[in-house]
């Protein structure tokens, strides 16, 4: 991570955990009747849980300003941690502040709905878990083929909105809480803001079709290249970015899915994506027959932001498999920056776009090695310059591969701030 990036991420964590709940806690404490002081901690826990749940919903709208600051993977990480933390606090609230009747029913219904959706999301929507537990990965693949396709998962996840509404009703039903006017003003304002943000984001994502699929071809075993033309302004598209793509007129492909682009699409208004068929959405893409109308989002990603922040003298790029895709446009978009690339895949057929590396080799400042199987540690370490201060390392590929190289490079004295890896496990 980078110093600026670390500072921003730390501020956001502090805001999420401490600053945002403060006005709710302060107004609630000031107005809480003496008769309920024994339940004070439990009531506070429930309040913080509600604030965290609202924040989690807001983060699910993929705020573009946050992506450029900390990256969407980190946004989703905060989203997941806040959701799990909120469920734990909600349980403490249930245990310490007993209720009855409709108040209890709405609170319990919300809690168990949140719990069920969290467990579902850990398996079907949080790739970091299934990639670490092979047994869960097998179950996920089997159930996705039969029942829980991508579209189903998206709609199930939206039931979190219903759970939040149940909590909102739960709060309105408690007379002594409803009587605390400043607290209720904060509750209403935060809830209206988050739901307005969510539905505005949903409306934007379901706007007009702004792209068209021109062609598709297999560039490797199970890797599909899509070329799309768009009338969207691409001035903000940066090297290494990705977009969310959907095909609203195609059953099963209506919900947006993230894919990195291979090229720099700013001038020609064409976007080239390379997509491996890992799930039901990506496999169905292989059946599309162009031309097909499509919808694309603004671009997301921090690879180029990382380069701009660090201002390195040279790049070392380590890529594995399909993880090379976003780094291709980084190489293309920084022709004056000396670069060395180590790119490997499991099989010869899985090495993609080798012709690009051949083309870039005509640059006097570019070197690359592409091979089947992993690189030995000493091969990569031998490419490190004696002075590490101007080096930046960009990594793309599986989490386990990234963890290995990050640990190895840090052990050689390369500061963590000069290594950037963008997780793509969601």
Automatic annotation (TrEMBL):
Name of the protein this chain belongs to: FAD-binding FR-type domain-containing protein
Transmembrane portions of the chain: 7-26, 41-59, 71-91, 111-130, 159-177, 183-203
Keywords assigned: 2Fe-2S, FAD, Flavoprotein, Iron, Iron-sulfur, Membrane, Metal-binding, Oxidoreductase, Transmembrane, Transmembrane helix
Cofactor: FAD
Organism, scientific name: Lactobacillus nasalidis
Keyword Nucleus among UniProt keywords: no
Domain called FAD-binding FR-type: residue spans: 206-306
Domain of life where this protein originates: Bacteria
Calcium recorded as keyword: no
């Amino acid at each position: 991570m980078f110093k600026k990036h670390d500072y921003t991420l730390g501020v956001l964590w502090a805001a999420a955990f401490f600053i945002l709940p403060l006005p709710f806690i302060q107004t609630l404490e000031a107005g809480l009747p003496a008769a309920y002081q024994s339940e004070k901690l439990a009531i506070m826990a429930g309040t913080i849980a509600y604030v965290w749940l609202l924040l989690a919903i807001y983060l699910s709208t993929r705020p573009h300003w946050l992506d450029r600051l900390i990256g969407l993977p980190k946004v989703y990480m905060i989203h997941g941690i806040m959701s799990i933390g909120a469920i734990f606090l909600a349980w403490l609230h249930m245990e310490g502040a007993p209720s009855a009747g409709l108040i209890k029913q709405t609170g319990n219904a919300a809690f168990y709905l949140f719990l069920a959706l969290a467990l579902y999301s850990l398996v079907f929507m949080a790739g970091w878990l299934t990639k670490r537990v092979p047994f869960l990965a097998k179950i996920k693949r089997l159930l996705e083929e039969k029942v829980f396709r991508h579209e189903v998962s998206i709609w199930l996840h939206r039931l979190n909105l219903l759970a939040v509404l149940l909590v909102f009703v739960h709060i309105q039903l408690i007379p002594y809480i409803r009587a605390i006017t400043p607290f209720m003003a904060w509750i209403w304002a935060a809830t209206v803001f988050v739901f307005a943000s969510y539905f505005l984001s949903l409306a934007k994502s379901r706007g007009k079709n702004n792209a068209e699929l021109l062609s598709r071809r297999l560039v490797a075993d199970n890797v599909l290249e899509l070329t799309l033309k768009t009338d969207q302004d691409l001035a903000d598209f940066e090297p290494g970015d990705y977009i969310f793509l959907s095909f609203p007129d195609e059953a099963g492909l209506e919900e947006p899915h993230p894919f990195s682009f291979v090229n720099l699409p700013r001038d020609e208004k064409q976007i080239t994506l390379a997509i491996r068929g890992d799930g039901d959405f990506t496999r169905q893409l292989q059946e599309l027959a162009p031309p097909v109308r499509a919808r694309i989002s603004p671009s997301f990603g921090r690879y180029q932001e990382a380069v701009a922040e660090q201002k390195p003298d040279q790049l070392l790029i380590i890529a594995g498999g399909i993880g090379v895709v976003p780094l291709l446009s980084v190489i293309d978009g920084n022709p004056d920056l000396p670069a060395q690339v180590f790119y490997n895949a499991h099989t010869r057929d899985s090495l993609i776009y080798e012709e690009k590396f051949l083309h870039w080799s005509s640059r006097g400042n570019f070197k690359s090695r592409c091979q089947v199987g992993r690189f030995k540690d000493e091969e990569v370490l031998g490419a490190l310059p004696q002075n590490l201060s101007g080096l930046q390392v960009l990594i793309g590929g599986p989490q386990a591969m990234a963890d290995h190289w990050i640990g190895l490079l840090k052990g050689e004295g390369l500061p963590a701030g000069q290594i950037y890896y963008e997780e793509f496990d969601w």
